[in-house]
Write a structure and sequence with these properties.
Order of helices and strands of chain A: HHEEEHEEEHHHHHHHEEHHEEEEEH
GO molecular function, one term (chains A, B): 6-aminohexanoate-dimer hydrolase activity
Number of strands of chain A: 13
InterPro entries (chains A, B): Beta-lactam-related (IPR001466), Beta-lactam/transpept-like (IPR012338), Diverse_Enzym_Activities (IPR050789)
Helix content of chain A: 25-40%
EC number (chains A, B): 3.5.1.46
Oligomer: homodimer
Distance between the termini of chain A: 46 Å
Strand order of the largest sheet of chain A: 5-4-13-12-11-10-9
Largest sheet of chain A: 7 strands, antiparallel
Radius of gyration of chain A: 20 Å
Structural class of chain A: alpha+beta
Keywords (chains A, B): Hydrolase
Pfam families (chains A, B): Beta-lactamase
């Protein structure tokens, strides 16, 4: 399928006809066995329906949840900004399809002021959050740190003896939290032979080769990751760090990670709906990117962080999650669009004078909080390019323009 | 694993240690690729966690649901009855583990009077209902009949031209509803070469042989079922009838079966939680047995039927579902424990003077309604034997004793 000829409008999954009809026509059926669910343009359907392709586990919400208040300002769709890679301004509305947006919610002072849905994505859709999941994991880990149950100065292998001798063996919990571990693992989504490929095979997110004899779950795979370099000297984004974090959390809590997430965040924050967490064949959470949730629940998480944790997440945790990481550790060449940023506690931190911080996942999943503007943006997308460098030129100026409009 | 040596107590999934730990020990991991999820004693864990093994789709509940009222009478556990195949009486409490019960709720006049949970099953568990699913499908089909949108006298192939030339081609909708179709399909769960084996392979509920080249979804498989005999002369329980019904429903409603079930039953009846519906690779519902739901939501469905449909299900539909089928069509030799019964509209009907009717699924899934006693029993189980003949000797007298106790 000539996916590279399709733009945000022509790749609309309803227009493409994916999985429509009873049954869908043969050429419109997306098969996990062909990895259709992970290839553009099919991802425009699959990212809103991941549990139809892979095993999952419920992250239970409580029985009580209040709907978000609405104070819609349709004029916001017409605010204009200049993309980072362009000379001509465009409107927010125009930018949405260009960013392959599936859904967006903008909250100002806790009320939804702007809301758009595209394709097969709606308010009740559980859309995959990819690495936005990591910020939930990091927050939970920091909560255990705050309670004295997880020592950031201890070694990861103190909690997980299985990791002794692996690349994680002599890394501290803090290094895992801030992704300053030095691992023999490449996270290049465009390279099929990268570490992320072996990781994905172990996870089972995509079909394995017929003659595959490697690990079939994360706990078997993670100890095989070696070391390359010296821990603690720089931030390098590697998803296995998050899997190790979630593994520690489950080990400490003696519960499945999905239960911890439900009890410590989903229920107390009054999330509107259960989430779907992708699991590997051993039932272990795909904590590095497997959370599928309602967009408004992602916005709720952002609001909780913006408002100091709402008594659910300790303020010290919020402080570390939104002001952590070491800018000197950040790779300026790799992230030219994020100058002065840092990565800490599994959050992306702007260190700008507005206090902006973000949770980011491939293909455009975004939680963006601008405390100065009392604004939270939650966005799901299915951009053909995994790396967020592809949509940042549109998105970052859009959030800035929104913040300015809401602050005036 | 010597499953045949295990009883209801020793097969307890917590005691067995399935899937406990982060990660579980290698010999405690249940793998879909080995069909662990469909074999005793592993089913005592898997039937409460099916979405971790197979693709599924959400059946959405609405935002508002009231908890069932409780009026617990612990004395009910001590009521005694004589099993059909025994001389000595036993207590209800004793019978529960003997029937490999995972959960049971007894409602009297709409309030929960008795409640027990075992193993890994609890109030929030979505346990597989197996063929109890069929009674939801039959009820939805009768609702369309009542609205004049599905003609019981028409041919199935009038709605689904794909079935022309198949065993279903010249069967009427009513014959499909009441399972009086004459198909070349054996539903012997103990025979790996039966029709149910090919059906299961198409469905993908169990792993397919490596060299499998058969259909990979229900819509490709169902037209391949041939005819054997004459339609309308007798009731023979065959699950593909239900798949055809659900297919017709989806075709008429132009929606996924999960959406129809949500809109027409789950939301209006105020179900407490979303359900998980197993789907095949084309995303089509496994409507013959793939519903996973909270036990209290199953009880709610029974209560709705007992109370004339509660304005959600038309009374005429309730009447047909609870008084339908032709006793003369019922196979007395096959169901010696169900004398005088009939099967109609995908419900099991006792035709006794109490008006009892039931939804039944393999391995002990049961919804039992005794209108005379104003009683509804909902039970999940993971009995080692699929056929309900294995637990009826315990269950039928238990329900009768409960009804008597609640009526006195």
């Amino acid at each position: 399928m000539a996916g590279d000829l399709l733009d945000g409008v022509t790749s609309d999954p309803v227009r493409m006809g994916w999985m429509q009809g009873s049954p869908p026509p043969a050429d419109k059926i997306l098969l996990a066995s062909r990895a259709d669910h992970m290839r553009f343009p099919m991802i425009r359907w699959s990212y809103s329906n991941m549990r139809q392709f892979v095993p999952s586990r419920r992250v239970a919400a409580g029985d009580e949840s209040k709907a978000l208040e609405r104070a819609i300002d349709e004029g916001l769709g017409q605010i204009r900004f200049v993309p980072l890679n362009a000379d001509e301004p465009m409107s927010l509305e125009q930018s949405l399809t260009q960013a392959f947006t599936d859904g967006i919610l903008v909250l100002h002072r806790g009320k939804v002021v702007f809301e758009r849905w595209f394709g097969v994505t709606g308010p009740e859709t559980r859309h995959i959050a990819f690495s936005v999941t990591k910020s939930f994991v990091g927050t939970l880990a920091e909560m255990l740190v705050e309670e004295g149950r997880l020592d950031p100065a201890a070694l990861a292998s103190d909690y997980l003896p299985e990791l002794t001798g692996s690349g994680f063996g002599d890394a501290t919990v803090r290094q895992v939290l801030d992704m300053t571990t030095a691992l023999d693992f490449s996270e290049d989504y465009a390279d099929p032979n990268s570490g992320i490929g072996a990781y994905s095979a172990a996870l089972g997110l995509t079909p394995r080769p017929v003659d595959y004899a490697g690990p079939i779950d994360l706990a078997s795979y993670l100890p095989r990751i070696g070391k390359a370099g010296q821990h603690g000297t720089g931030f390098t984004y590697r998803t296995p760090n998050t899997e190790v974090l979630a593994w520690m959390i489950a080990r400490i809590e003696r519960k499945h990670f999905a239960e911890v997430l439900s009890e410590r965040i989903w229920r107390p924050l009054g999330m509107r709906g259960d989430a779907d967490l992708i699991v590997d064949q051993a039932g272990t959470a795909f904590a590095g990117g497997g959370l599928n949730l309602r967009l408004e629940d992602l916005a709720r998480f952002g609001e909780a962080m913006r408002l100091g944790g709402l008594g659910v997440i300790p303020e010290a945790v919020v402080q570390r999650a939104t002001h952590g990481g070491e800018p000197a550790h950040f790779d300026r060449n790799r992230y030219p669009q994020l100058p002065g940023w840092s990565y800490g506690s599994q959050w992306w931190i702007s260190n700008n004078n507005r206090g902006c911080f973000s949770a980011r996942g491939i293909h455009g999943q975004t939680l963006w909080v601008d405390p100065a503007a009392e604004m939270t943006v939650a966005r799901f997308a299915s951009h053909p390019t995994a790396a967020n460098g592809a949509n940042d030129p549109l998105s970052l100026p859009a959030w800035a323009a929104l913040a300015e409009a809401l602050s005036s």
